[in-house]
């Protein structure tokens, strides 16, 4: 089961990652044909999630996998984004939320051990 802290941070991330927000900050403010290089393993596809679910991977592990891949994607974007870019603050807020969620997962893992 998710902890209250994880639920609250997930809700905040869900609000920040709404389609309109992503469209505004990650599409309209980026140049046409601009890409960020990622490794194949860093792409979380629905078919992979289904395969993992069917292969007895726990929901906790799937949530952590989503967190890890998403936080790494934000870090990749921030590495190439100039501080004066209109999306800088948005990606900074996402990074803070992912950092807080990472701390929550760390506490959860320590309690389980």
Automatic annotation (TrEMBL):
Pfam families (UniProt xref): IL34
Gene3D superfamilies per the UniProt record, alphabetical: Interleukin-34
Molecular functions per Gene Ontology: macrophage colony-stimulating factor receptor binding
Coiled-coil zones: none
Example GO biological process: positive regulation of monocyte differentiation
Gene Ontology CC terms, in alphabetical order: extracellular space
Protein known as: IL34 protein
Protein species of origin: Psilopogon haemacephalus (coppersmith barbet)
